[in-house]
Structure formats: C-alpha cells, structure tokens
Specification:
By secondary structure, this protein is α+β, with helices and mostly antiparallel strands. The chain has a single domain, classed as Glycoprotein, Type 4 Pilin (2-Layer Sandwich), CATH 3.30.700. The chain is built from 1 helix and 4 strands; from the N terminus they run αββββ. The protein is elongated.
C-alpha cells in the first residue's frame, strides 16, 4: 500500500469547512435582511403617494378648467366660481375658491394638497400655478417645495 507523502496537502474536511459555509450563509441572510428593510421603508411611502396622486389628477383637471376660463376672458378673481371637489377614493373633500385656489383633503393618508394661481399676465392671458402639500413626504415631486 502506498502511504501519502508528508508534503502533500490534505483535502479539507470536517469542522473548518462547515464553519466557513455557515459564516457565508449568515452573511447572505444579513444582506437580504438589510435589503428587505430598505425596500419596505420605501414601499410604506409608496402607497400614500399613490393615493395622493389620485387627488392630484382631480386638482389638475380643475386647474385646467380654471385656466381655460381665464383664457376665454373670465377674470381670475372669479374663475373658480361654481367648481367643486368630488369626494371619492382617497379624496375626503375639499374646496375651489372663486379666485381659483384648489384645496384637496385626503383621509388616508391624512394630507392636504393646494394649487394656487401665482401669476397672471393680462396681455397674454397666461396663468402660472403653484402646487404645495403637507406632509411633503407623501406629495408628488411637483408639489414639494
């Protein structure tokens, strides 16, 4: 029978290999846990933002109506007269003032979105708007300061 030479390395077996496998496995679990925590934090903000975006669509349609009224000759001070906010979905309610300011109130998440006329040029009948909302973290990017 042939005996192994003293200088030849032996194949690794036993506890050392198991410890390396266990360490690598734990490292993978920790990395996945960190990714899940980061993803769930982003997702918790996503759902309220989606609901607020629903109300933003309503506000944008009202903004378009008010802008068209002003371009057709209605004075900006009375361009919002007769317009209302329709309650439904994420929208709890709101108002449209006679001067065209739009306020949308949300129940879930509790939030408020405001669109206001910031500038009106009588010569060109161009209207500029500003969108703001609170809390900012659930507002669309166009409505954050």
């Amino acid at each position: 029978m042939m005996e192994p030479e003293a200088n030849q390395p032996r194949a690794r077996t036993g506890p050392t290999r198991r410890v390396k496998i266990l360490g690598t496995g734990l490292l993978a679990v920790v990395a996945i846990t960190i990714l899940v925590i980061l993803a769930s934090t982003d997702y918790t903000d996503y759902t309220p933002r989606a609901r607020v975006s629903e109300g933003l669509l309503l506000a944008v349609s009202l903004r378009t109506e008010i802008t068209e009224r002003i371009r057709a000759g209605t004075p900006p001070q009375s361009a919002g007269a007769g317009l209302t906010i329709t309650r439904g979905g994420a929208v709890k309610g709101g108002t449209v003032s006679e001067n065209g300011s739009i306020y949308v109130v949300f129940e879930n998440p509790p939030a408020v979105l405001t669109m206001k006329i910031t500038n009106f040029d009588p010569a060109t009948r161009q209207v500029k708007w500003q969108c703001l909302g609170y809390p900012a973290k659930v507002m669309p990017a166009s409505c954050r300061e």
